[in-house]
Request: fold
Amino acid sequence: MGRVVRGCPRVSAGLIAAYGELGVATVHEAQGRTGLMAPRLRPIYRPVRLAGSALTVELPPGDNWMLHVAIEQARPGDVVVATPTSPCSDGYFGELLATSMRAHGVSGLVIDAGVRDVAELTELRFPVWSAAVSAQGTVKETVANVQTPIVCAGARVEPGDLVLADDDGVVVVRRMEAEVVLAAARKREQAEARRRVQYAAGELGLDLSAMREGLSARGLVYEDHNA
Amino acid sequence: MGRVVRGCPRVSAGLIAAYGELGVATVHEAQGRTGLMAPRLRPIYRPVRLAGSALTVELPPGDNWMLHVAIEQARPGDVVVATPTSPCSDGYFGELLATSMRAHGVSGLVIDAGVRDVAELTELRFPVWSAAVSAQGTVKETVANVQTPIVCAGARVEPGDLVLADDDGVVVVRRMEAEVVLAAARKREQAEARRRVQYAAGELGLDLSAMREGLSARGLVYEDHNA
Amino acid sequence: MGRVVRGCPRVSAGLIAAYGELGVATVHEAQGRTGLMAPRLRPIYRPVRLAGSALTVELPPGDNWMLHVAIEQARPGDVVVATPTSPCSDGYFGELLATSMRAHGVSGLVIDAGVRDVAELTELRFPVWSAAVSAQGTVKETVANVQTPIVCAGARVEPGDLVLADDDGVVVVRRMEAEVVLAAARKREQAEARRRVQYAAGELGLDLSAMREGLSARGLVYEDHNA
Amino acid sequence: MGRVVRGCPRVSAGLIAAYGELGVATVHEAQGRTGLMAPRLRPIYRPVRLAGSALTVELPPGDNWMLHVAIEQARPGDVVVATPTSPCSDGYFGELLATSMRAHGVSGLVIDAGVRDVAELTELRFPVWSAAVSAQGTVKETVANVQTPIVCAGARVEPGDLVLADDDGVVVVRRMEAEVVLAAARKREQAEARRRVQYAAGELGLDLSAMREGLSARGLVYEDHNA
Amino acid sequence: MGRVVRGCPRVSAGLIAAYGELGVATVHEAQGRTGLMAPRLRPIYRPVRLAGSALTVELPPGDNWMLHVAIEQARPGDVVVATPTSPCSDGYFGELLATSMRAHGVSGLVIDAGVRDVAELTELRFPVWSAAVSAQGTVKETVANVQTPIVCAGARVEPGDLVLADDDGVVVVRRMEAEVVLAAARKREQAEARRRVQYAAGELGLDLSAMREGLSARGLVYEDHNA
Amino acid sequence: MGRVVRGCPRVSAGLIAAYGELGVATVHEAQGRTGLMAPRLRPIYRPVRLAGSALTVELPPGDNWMLHVAIEQARPGDVVVATPTSPCSDGYFGELLATSMRAHGVSGLVIDAGVRDVAELTELRFPVWSAAVSAQGTVKETVANVQTPIVCAGARVEPGDLVLADDDGVVVVRRMEAEVVLAAARKREQAEARRRVQYAAGELGLDLSAMREGLSARGLVYEDHNA
Reply:
């Protein structure tokens, strides 16, 4: 009833480093507004940013056994991406598992469920994005899949996909598209830098992006107060 | 299908400054426990406090075009108050729009929807109260109203109303009532200061507000443990 | 319609001090994964930790009268544990009541409803766990019970129970079991300390807890990527 | 602290009858996609349809006193539209109040809170749209406003506005616009009837509304599976 | 880690029959507005009414083993009252377990979690109140308690308490208070019958309950429209 | 920015007919407790059952243009499975689109968003599973994908997958696995039929599935009340 797939491919350390300088919103835009996890996933401390290669885990409700199984599969640069097989807010993960993960090169956790020991995790600077904080303990009774494709917080994740997370949330980039999206994201960043200067100088998006005609065509009208 | 009303009246800079020293809870009480937005609106960083004159914006779901339109209407001291025309958690607003708004005198944003770039907005100290944080991008396709009366997070807001926001949430004061409410709020603050001293000295609300008789009349009885 | 039970027993100051060095997750585990309040209760600032003796209060919706009644019953070391008699997010409690509570020895508040003045409470370092932040004011019209057994955020609480709260949430320990649970929690802490060292050294839970056989028996299989 | 405005204008019986044959979605569209209450308001039985003149009521949390006050103000054709002054799911209304309302000409209730006795109300065929079903009782201690403008489930409602509700939800039409919107809604119904015939015959919206060019201009491309 | 308490007392068949003619709202009022479960518990079909003696069960998340254990403890007239040890929407119960329960005299189920086979359960007329409908299957791996005091949907339930459920929700009456509450509920029903006649005749609660003076004392004022 | 993939494969009419006699819970179990959509998807009327071949659609928030595009791709036996690209409760679909879909062979709709005209859809017996009912109208401005793999309510859906929905919810079966899962589901149904007879005769799951030893091994103990 449970499968562990060994030796899955990863995104390269170079790609991970490059993505580590980008924001989630930028990358999400650069790949056509796709790949975003639901906003219920929030970081346990802020500010924070993390990029890595997805190590996927399924978790039965109230059962964190597979996190132990996953750690053995970890390689430096991995981010564990864990999803419960049915909605669950229990605290699947805490400071002890973070210690174990860190020892095996895992740089952070994305989980559509609960975590605990958030004070200790914050002190350790072990980055976590979770759907809940809960001290509720879990059992170790039921097996599930590790390193198979999953859906986490509404986003499809395959083992080895690029995962990027920051204060805004979490986005996934297909491993084979990570180079192309990186280039697009950098281009977008440059355009945003130019736009930032223009906006700071008081120029309007209405003019810079030539919106006025389109607005008028859609029926936007201006009138004066009490006119 | 969309109207922009130009030249709406504002509350004065003096009033804005005066309200900037008051808390949301105090003002909400001072105007008879009205005008509060729903508690789903939370500041993106804390502590924070902001007063301003409402510049109202309607936003179609997943469409932030009208924020660009609104910026052109801004005057120093304005706070943009934006409401989606149907529930939406998308990230309508980020650091670029904040840069543009700030260049036009806007001092903050209240939005019953999502925002992104919260790390950058926090660094910029651009105050935002939102219902969600989401990197989800938006389009620019559909027009709506700017500077018309709206309902935002359950509260009616008219252009030029006084908006006050702090760590507790957001309250709206009708423009024409802002002077009267200010006076009432200051009076309330003074009463609270006196009460604070009494409470710190150990005096009880039961005595200070003569509650005992009322409690008894309503049927409150005292008994001893295991008696 | 309302009862106040005077002179309820408390957990000892020694026990409170001892629990103050433990975490919620540890204690929750040590007493068999029971006693946890629902994760909707969150601290208004972090990091924070608090142990105390429960002073229980029932609150009618939108009515905070009983908090005043409760303060008179307080003794040093008490934590007020308040539950609305029907779901309510109003701001029942703020800085003035905190001042009064502190003057009577109350060290913090756990409330399955809303609070306000969170900036001031944070500055005062008055610890609060609440289900909401809301400036919404309350009335003083209806009586209810103080120091009777209640259900708060899904957990049964009796007057004088040990309440422990930290960044992870809130747990309740029956007063008569507090000694036993304390011993179990300390033992658990020691075991965790040993495990922490092992995990940091790279040892796996799979081996340390001899999980491999059980996993296999439950049907976990390993395969190689693209094999 | 509470005001009752007597003698507010109503929409005419003729208008109420005319709206009673229209659907909420049609009217919402006909007035430019405005006036809709949040979808948390659901009918207690289905199918159901109701049109009437809004008799507005504010309700303190857990306090239904003002419903009694409102009944005295009722006239035949009125629909009571009630909103709590802070979020509340309590059962403000049941079969007894329905009996009293009906005796005074009230034809139904729209309430952004809870109701009870839903089996009896269903048998009586007294139409109710509510945000919750709850047996939780309420008190009669605090006054509020009757027949003043309110916000109910996100929509502004003024006394005497036209309220239309069916299985899809609740929409409000300003009293002064009710004639114009009625005409637009009827026109829309006729257009829909024509469209229904075309759709039933297999014609496509793509062709009937000439969408293909627009879709292509926006970047829609067609490809064959596995091509 | 799990206890089953055999031979717990029950409420009598006579009491169960007597309560079966009462409504949840009436009983909730008759015992001082206490004992109500949270309104998230809804019946899977309507109309429906059920009274019985509580057979309490704790359920680990995603694990329905204890329902099997509970059935052996059942006696005619029992209602199974089941609560997950942490929030869970999985489908713990379906038509097969209903068949088994019915064979052992269980007359219905109250569960603060999910159920499935609701079409079949509806056809069988096996009454169920649940927090969710979900086909999600569960495991049988972890033990928990049967026939011990629990908290279900916010209400304390002890084995053998009287449970009453209808279209409005679920209320619990302590076994030892069931006679007294029954008498109070019947008295209340009679008063309601009298009031129903008065209301149907057009008499106002304002007059029947002499509310006018109180309303005025609380500050309610009447004014005329446009006066 | 949008792709329509033509000529995607379907599951056969024979398979659709065969699945039409099975329940969602049974099929979900038969394929190893996978493929279930989140329980927020509920049928608009009950009882109802539907099997079909998935025709997948992405919907921008508040924009139903792609439903029109999808209809042209429909073949008899298709079920439209639609997911918004960000959370949205608007009423994307109503009676007119149902008429058009039915004319093109579509037998039902599964949508993780809102629908309207539910009274008319119920009368038409056009089966719909949705996350909300809302009259809120949508625009036709932005393109997206049709017949590409999507995530709907947490489940991965590929064009041509088998979709089965009933009163319990919605489950997806990979097209290539539909034969195997069908066989497993039928086998399960037979086992359930045998078990039903045993349960009806009063036999216990404890005995039929030999649970007693396992329960004891996990630490379940029996004690007598007040023993």
